[in-house]
Design brief:
Layout: H1 5-27, E1 30-33, E2 43-50, E3 54-61, E4 66-72, H2 84-90, H3 92-102, H4 105-141, H5 147-178
Antiparallel strand pairs: 1-2, 2-3, 3-4
């Protein structure tokens, strides 16, 4: 028995959510004290603490200088980067150390899933534009006379405006209720 596509999508979304939450709870935290033989050049010590909402790197240089970097997804730590990508712009060395030496298993899986998801969306965009153009051309050529083109144009504009209004309203309502970020 083959499930309908919408059920396959719904099941995939639920499985993805369960796997993501489970990974964050069970494998989302990693404390790393980098061994002396793996330390980057110029460092005497490096400690990395990685959790889903907070990443902290603390290091001591060979000359005794102490440094650190923080990524705080909750934006409650002053001067901290909000994302790992922002840390990569602010302090590329620290981001590289985190990437090579101290990521939690949940972060590794999450980054891989993000790459696959981005590829899927780009492939979807690649298919969507020709599909829409082809359906518009087929619709216009199937009308027959030019008089019915005006009616179709009016219905299309009305449909576009109403669905856009509905989407914007739902988006604003959801943002005001849930207050993300």
């Amino acid at each position: 028995m083959k499930l309908a596509l919408h059920w396959q999508i719904a099941i995939g979304m639920v499985v993805g959510a369960v796997v993501g939450v489970s990974l964050n709870l069970l494998a989302g935290v990693r404390q790393t004290e980098v061994a002396a033989n793996r330390l980057p050049a110029g460092l005497a010590s490096l400690t990395i603490s990685d959790s889903p909402n907070h990443v902290e790197l603390a290091w001591t240089s060979n000359d005794g200088t102490v440094g650190g970097a923080v990524v705080d997804g909750t934006r409650q730590t002053p001067g901290a980067a909000a994302t790992v990508d922002e840390l990569a712009r602010l302090n590329p060395e620290a981001a590289d150390w985190l990437h090579r030496l101290g990521r939690s298993p949940a972060r590794v899986v999450g980054e891989a899933a993000q790459k696959i998801g981005g590829l899927f969306l780009r492939l979807l965009q690649m298919v969507a534009v020709p599909l829409i153009i082809t359906s518009l051309i087929c619709g216009v050529t199937g009308l027959g006379d030019a008089a019915s083109l005006g009616g179709m144009f009016l219905r299309t504009i009305l449909y576009y405006a109403s669905t856009s209004f509905l989407a914007i309203s739902i988006g604003l309502l959801a943002v005001n209720i849930f207050r993300p970020g």
